[in-house]
Amino acid sequence: MKNPGLQISLSHRFFSYIFSATKRSIRACQEVYSGWFKKPTHSPHNRPAFLSVPSLSYIMHTPNGLNIFALSRISENVPASKEMEASVRAVEEIVGYNFKNKRLLEEALTHSSYTESISYQRLEFIGDAALGCALSNYVFLAYSSLDPGQLSLLRAANISTEKLARVAIRHGLYQYVRHNAAALDEKVREFAIAIEDEDEAVTYGGSVKAPKILADIVESVAAAVYVDCNFDLQELWVIFRGLLEPIVTLEDLQQQPQPVTMLFELCQKDGKQVDIKHWRKGLKNIASVYVDGKFIASSCTEQKETAKLYAAKEALRKLLESKSNDVETTESCKEFDGKYEIDGAKQKLHELCGKRKWPKPNYRIEREVGPAHDRRFICSVQIETVDGTLFMMGDMKSRVKDADNSAASLMLRALLESKYV
Fold first, then answer.
1. Greatest distance between any 2 Cα atoms in the chain
2. Which residue, 344, 187, 201, is CA-closest to 275?
3. Alpha carbon distance 56, 36 (integer Å)
């Protein structure tokens, strides 16, 4: 065979699966033989059921004949460096696992800013996949009646950046990481303080964004365990599950949803950018969710974080119902002062004209009323199209900027309703 690709021979069974190393991943291969994995024997609240191939040994060869797993065994019984010896020993106690190759854990505790040694970036890559696969196996067996959408939410809730960052804080992992980025310390400290000040019921959607480095550490340590135990996914789960406790259950999601975290994870998987915008109207806080610049959902409550959570929950519902996300930008209309306004309408109209290759919109003050200390304005907008000139006047506002936006909002609505765009 001229190009055998990456071949995995399973000595436990007479089976061989050959695939191209450039097109398939180890994780994808693991999914191929998921049908051999054992059935669950425990409920999700007791000892975890887990997918595993008992006594499975791997022989993996690259196209040039290198035995990947043999390479990992060559480095067994390697001590940590003197500099990291204490940190490695402390983290081993936290994880409850004694590393054969302690340099793996040392690498997992090295940030990229520390240039004198290999950073955890490669381990983070495989740790993300390994934890994702482990959680997929767990929720698949623990919840046999759930549909893929609900299973995805459960998995996302347990391996999100927010969740893993809190795991790192809970077990004090950050203090053992070597780095040369002082700014990281302040971010982590701010996040840790915010967690301490939270009510016990708060698990997701905290007031301070979780620093990514904290989640990276957990993924890297998980990867170090995974590689050190010769890529045994079951052993990884048995060792690492305790660190992830409490595992988010279906009941948790039903009683205390975590929509913001799951929204970001769901969209990240699809390669989409999420933006949650906030503004106030009187005593009300308004939050709107945009995905790739397109309006998806909005909510209005007295509490900013509550508005954010409700908006994210509604966005999740819509995205799960239809992955197409074919939502026009002008669907971001929402009621405001009794009229329909579009947040950032002036910029959106400008972008629309650019896409249609129309000249830039022309705004003008049509009317000013009231004394100098209480002046109000009515503005108009005019755009030139291939079919002629379109003109629209907005509502009266206390600022010219708002009056311009009102005119742009009404213009966008008119274009949409007339099916002009």
1. 90
2. 344
3. 11
pLDDT digit string (tens) for the chain, length 421 residues: 444 433 333 333 322 332 333 333 444 434 433 333 333 444 444 444 444 333 333 444 445 554 444 444 445 688 888 889 999 999 999 999 999 999 999 999 999 999 999 999 999 999 999 999 999 999 999 999 999 888 987 888 888 888 899 999 999 999 999 999 989 999 999 999 988 877 654 555 556 778 889 999 999 999 999 999 999 999 999 999 999 998 988 888 777 656 777 788 888 877 889 999 888 877 778 888 999 888 888 888 655 765 777 788 788 878 877 553 333 433 444 433 344 578 788 988 988 888 888 899 999 999 898 888 888 999 999 998 776 778 888 888 999 999 999 999 888 888 876 656 5
Q: What share of the chain is helix, strand, coil (3-state, %, to 5)?
A: 45, 20, 35
Q: pTM, whole model, 2 decimals?
A: 0.52
Going from N- to C-terminal start, the domains of the chain cover 40-53+73-256, 342-421
Class of the CATH domain delimited by 342-421: alpha beta
Non-local (6+) Cβ contacts of 301 within 8 A are 284, 285, 307, 310
CATH number for the 40-53+73-256 domain, one of 1.10.10.10, 1.10.1520.10, 3.40.50.150, 3.65.10.10?
1.10.1520.10
Handedness of CA 103, 107, 248, 208 (dihedral sign): positive
